[in-house]
Amino acid sequence: MPTTVTSTGESEMMNRAREDEFELSKSGSENIEGISGDDQADPNQRPKKKRYHRHTQHQIQEMEAFFKECPHPDDKQRKELSRELNLEPLQVKFWFQNKRTQMKNHHERSENSQLRAENDKLRAENMRYKEVLTNASCPNCGGPAALGEMSFDEHHLRMENVRLREEIDRISGIAAKYVGKPLVSYPFSNPITSRSPLDIGAGGFGVQPGIGNEIFGAGDLLRSVSGQSDIEKPMIIELAVAAMEELLRMAQIGEPLWTQGIDSSSETLNEEEYVRMFPRGIGLKPLGFKSEASRETEVVIMNHVNLVEILMDVNQYSTLFSSIISRAMTVEVLSTGVAGNYNGALQVMSAEFQVPSPLVPTRESLFVRYCKQNADGTWAVVDVSLDSLRSNPVSRCRRRPSGCLIQEMPNGYSKVTWVEHVEVDDRSVHNLYKPLVNSGLAFGAKRWVGTLDRQCERLASVMASNIPSGDIGVITTPEGRKSMLKLAERMVISFCGGVTASTAHQWTTLSGSGAEDVRVMTRKSVDDPGRPPGIVLNAATSFWLPVPPKRVFDFLRDESSRSEWDILSNGGVVQEMAHIANGRDHGNCVSLLRVNSANSNQSNMLILQESCTDQSGSYVIYAPVDVVAMNVVLNGGDPDYVALLPSGFAILPDGPNQAVDPAVGEMGSGGASLLTVAFQILVDSVPTAKLSLGSVATVNSLIACTVDRIKSAVSGESTNP
Question: In the chain, pLDDT over 70 holds for what percent of residues?
Answer without folding.
Answer: 68
